[in-house]
Amino acid sequence: MHQPLAFRMRPKTIDQIVGQKHLVGDGKIIQRMVQAKMLSSMILYGPPGTGKTSIASAIAGSTNYAFRMLNAATDTKKDLQIVAEEAKMSGTVILLLDEVHRLDKVKQDFLLPHLENGRIILIGATTENPYISINPAIRSRTQLFEVKPLTEHDIEEALQRALKDQEVGLGNEPVLLDDLALLHLTRATNGDLRSALNGLELAVCSTKKNADGQIHLTLAIIEECLQLKSLTHDKNGDAHYDVISALQKSIRGSDVNASLHYLARLVAAGDLMTICRRLLVIAYEDIGLGNPAAAARTVSAVTAAEKLGFPEARIPLSHAVVDLCLSPKSNSSYQALDAALADIREGKVGDIPDHLRDNHYHGADKLSRGVDYHYPHDSPHGWIKQQYLPDRLRQAKYYEPKLTGKYEQALAQRYHVINQENN
């Protein structure tokens, strides 16, 4: 059976791992574990193709422990029992458990005692955020290590190694790889070494030798053969929420170019509903009274986008993002509400003043409901001095105006005048 190049090029030892120097470099945590032969169970989390399986196999190769691979979603408890029996006989087994976030309670309960006694060294692999997706019982018994996307330099190093390796690589093939083709392999795969290696192998195997007996790989050939990984993300994955967060923080920070970049990633992922919802949140949470008209325009843009659908929806969405990004920012209104809510949660409520209570029923006046209430519209200024807050909160101040936009500056001025009159 043919094994893909990415499988064949998996590192045999820690020193052969490409990238991840923060984990396997000299003096770093996994390197120290291997050198001291003091391995502990761990969870490796990060994007696909970044070396989680490679790290696990390299740890096993560097320690000479038995190495087994299972999938938490598809393999059964019986498969785990077989690994456990092997561990009893051999002493220690390193178990790479892919999609560890999908480990159900039955399998988890079986694994836990074996992790406790050290017979099984679990290396869980996942693309999900372990702090959100991994069961606390497993998480508390493992160390969590983030595996980061490989750099272009990392991928180029691995590709050059594969081209020279005569044992398991492509070193026996007369490959001539153009510089632009190599550059495309390192960039277009977005840090996914597996995609880069398998794309290279497809190009080599499917390209005929030229008159000089060489397999000449041009940019056009690599573009054709590379199974290009989407530069976006899984809409259900952890990275999706990172992009949403980055979009809001970029708009909040008034960086138009970064905001449009993250919008483009969400548009490319086709997630119209999330974009529309998030822009509405941003309009009221981050811009707020700094530019209320921008919030109204965002509602209109979202409505238009929902009616248009993609690809045209990107047009009103881009308008909204630029508008929100360059608008004055103010979170004063919802911060004021949160401050009021905090008082309520602490029991600071108090009785409603009698003159504010409902008096639209027979006998209300006998209970002093609504008596001595002054109607603000009767005043030429639009307000009349009277108490509105309960007695115990009479001096409470929740709203602190921001002076970032002309609209709230005007509100702040009126707020100041009213407070002066009422004090």
Automatic annotation (TrEMBL):
Name of this chain's protein: Replication-associated recombination protein A
InterPro entries linked to this entry: AAA+_ATPase (IPR003593), AAA_assoc_2 (IPR032423), AAA_ATPase_RarA/MGS1/WRNIP1 (IPR051314), ATPase_AAA_core (IPR003959), DNA_pol3_clamp-load_cplx_C (IPR008921), MgsA_C (IPR021886), P-loop_NTPase (IPR027417)
PANTHER family: ATPASE WRNIP1, WERNER HELICASE-INTERACTING PROTEIN 1 FAMILY MEMBER
Family classification: Belongs to the AAA ATPase family. RarA/MGS1/WRNIP1 subfamily.
GO biological process, one term: DNA-templated DNA replication
Keywords of this entry: ATP-binding, Nucleotide-binding
Signal peptide (residue range): none
Pfam families: AAA, AAA_assoc_2, MgsA_C
Keyword Nucleus: no
Organism: Vagococcus intermedius
Keyword Transferase among UniProt keywords: no
